[in-house]
Specification:
The chain is α/β, with parallel strands linked by helices. About 35% of the residues lie in helices and about 20% in strands. The strands form two sheets. The protein has a six-stranded mixed beta sheet. The protein has a three-stranded antiparallel beta sheet with strand order 7-8-9, with helices on both faces.
């Protein structure tokens, strides 16, 4: 049976991140993708020039209509934009607590533009984190959630991941791509396990949408019924291939997108 996965996130017209990246990742991992938009952005590979949040009631109605008609096997939550939308999403999902949720707390764009208003962080922590099967922050996002300085060592990473776990998510995958050095380790923390995913840093500018794509790939795997460790392992292997193959694309002059369909398309 082909699984259905819903993304609740913002749009990226350049196709590398946001809803567009989510749908590509779902498809690449063999799942049927659906999307409820939270915001429109004007952006390309070099940055974000404008953000237009949609009315929170309309965001909630999109979600309601999906669940009224379609089986949803997993949910990915990305860009939320503001506190009203965060509340609306949390309320809409309260009656669907059995569906796995991967929450990517999108706060800052690759080029540095803020994508989450400060008052929404409190709602994100109080209303959405407890719904998350897996939370996937990077180091700057983890620091914002905890009100701490950004982790600079593995020990600090693990400590912050464990602190975030107390806020409600069942699992926290803290991504170490912002660490200094040649390695880019991630740590998964649950109530039962601590697991490090080791990886060498890939020297490439084509990293636009990596966070969106990873969380979406994890969602697609959770939709298939596997455990969170297996889902992340599969997703990371796929994403590594997508980053390594990104040079096959010619999209923009800034941070280019990863190649979501590197396993499916023939290089011409």
């Amino acid at each position: 049976m082909i699984r259905n996965v819903l993304s609740i996130a913002g749009s990226d017209p350049s196709g590398g991140a946001g809803i567009q990246a989510d749908l590509k990742a779902f498809s690449a991992l063999g799942a049927y993708g659906m999307a409820a938009l939270t915001a429109l952005t004007a952006q390309n590979t070099q940055g974000v020039s404008a953000v237009y949040p949609l009315p929170h009631a309309f965001v909630a109605e999109q979600i309601r209509m999906i669940f009224a008609d379609i089986r949803v096997d997993a949910i990915k939550i990305g860009m939320i934009a503001n506190a009203d939308i965060a509340k609306a999403v949390a309320e809409a999902l309260q009656r669907h607590r059995s569906v796995p949720v991967v929450l990517d707390p999108v706060m800052i764009a690759k080029g540095g533009a803020p994508l989450l208003k400060p008052d929404a962080v409190a709602v994100l922590k109080s209303a959405l984190l407890p719904l998350a099967t897996c939370l996937t922050p990077n180091l700057p996002e983890a620091a914002v959630l905890l009100g701490l300085a950004e982790a600079a060592t593995r020990e600090q990473m693990e400590g912050q991941a464990r602190q975030i776990l107390t806020l409600g998510p069942k699992a926290v995958l803290l991504k170490g791509g912002h660490l200094e050095g040649k390695d880019s380790p991630d740590v998964l923390v649950t109530s039962d396990i601590t697991h490090w995913f080791e990886a060498n840093r890939i020297d490439t500018p084509n990293t636009h949408g990596t966070g969106c794509s990873l969380s979406s790939a994890i969602s697609a795997e959770l939709a298939k019924g596997v455990d969170v460790l297996t889902a992340i392992s599969t997703a990371k292997i796929w994403l590594t291939g997508a980053v390594l193959a990104a040079g096959q694309l010619a999209v923009g002059a800034g941070h280019g997108p990863v190649h979501h369909f590197h396993e499916l398309w023939r290089q011409s």
